[in-house]
Amino acid sequence: METKAQAIEIAKNHLQLRGYNGFSFQDIADELGIRKASLHYYFASKEDLGLALIADYTQSFQHWSEMHEDREPVEKIKKFIDMYNSFSQDGLKVCPGGVLCIDYNTLPPKLKKTVCQLQEQIQDWLTKVVAEGIKSKALKATLKPKETATLIHATTQGALQIARMQNNPKAMKATSLALISLIEK
Fold this sequence. Notes:
Elements: H1 3-18, H2 25-32, H3 36-39, H4 46-67, H5 73-89, H6 96-102, H7 109-135, H8 145-166, H9 169-183
Helix pairs in contact: 1-2, 4-7, 5-7, 5-8, 5-9, 7-8, 8-9
């Protein structure tokens, strides 16, 4: 794996375990076994590294959503929960969007903008899935797609954080699946 790709993978791990403000360029360089100045060859600043992380997460989510395009709405929501659950199962990590929301007020302006775009991409996908579920009668007709999408997204992100605090990776999935029983017809 090339140095730039390795740096992104290391930064992803740090981000999901420690937050954006919880790691430095030096941390990444040390794990790569290179000088910090060498890391600047690939990323002019930590903000540029953060932008590369968001671009990677955005592309990954796009690919993931396309893989599940042909599933039924409730199954898509369950797969979404499974995706978030995989973070919890991987050392009690939290989702990248959630951790960046926590650090939001301290992020550089460009990074704030891309974090919002990532969150909007996920929110739009969930809103579309909920609308499909209502139309197909798999979800309750009284649901409002956008608000229900926000509820699903907030529940999965919050459940990850609670699972981390309780040191209980199983709590995330159980909490999120309980939500499905409330919205399913």
